[in-house]
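Why do we bother with a discrete structure alphabet at all? Because it lets us treat a fold like text: something you can write down, compare, and reason about line by line. To make this less abstract, here is a complete entry for HD/PDEase domain-containing protein. Read it the way you would read a sentence in a foreign language you are learning: slowly, and without expecting to understand everything at once.
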Amino acid sequence: VGNYEADVQRWHEIGGRFTRAVDLAREAHQDDVRKGTRIPYLSHLLAVASLAIEDASEDTSLADQLEDVAIAAMLHDVVEDTVDKESPVTVEDLERQFGAVVAQIVAGCTDAHTHPKPEWERRKRAYIEHLKIAEPNVLCVVLADKR
């Protein structure tokens, strides 16, 4: 059953920083849709954030990182999806706006930090190798993204 009061306190920790992350994700992906659909890409980001919040809430090792995990889940694609845009969002930008933990998680979820992006197969193989040693907070977001 756990400690209900502690759980409620953690849920209240998701606040203004998360709202700013939603705003940044909306701006960065404003014209993006899910592949082959008219569904706004923001729906994917909200779904990943929701799953990551659920998973992190159940993992005692991530309990003190709940808001950071939620923010990183919301922004997990922003670096690789804006790298070739006029105003790219970098890991350094995320660190300035949301802190080192969020930046570390997003960097761990990102398979392309440069433009042009490396060749697809090479990029994905390197990403899979990286996941073998990734931190639990990164894996939480990656697994939420792949569900």
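What the structure line is telling us, in plain words: The domain at 4-146 is CATH 1.10.3210.10 (Hypothetical protein af1432). The two ends are 26 Å apart (CA to CA).
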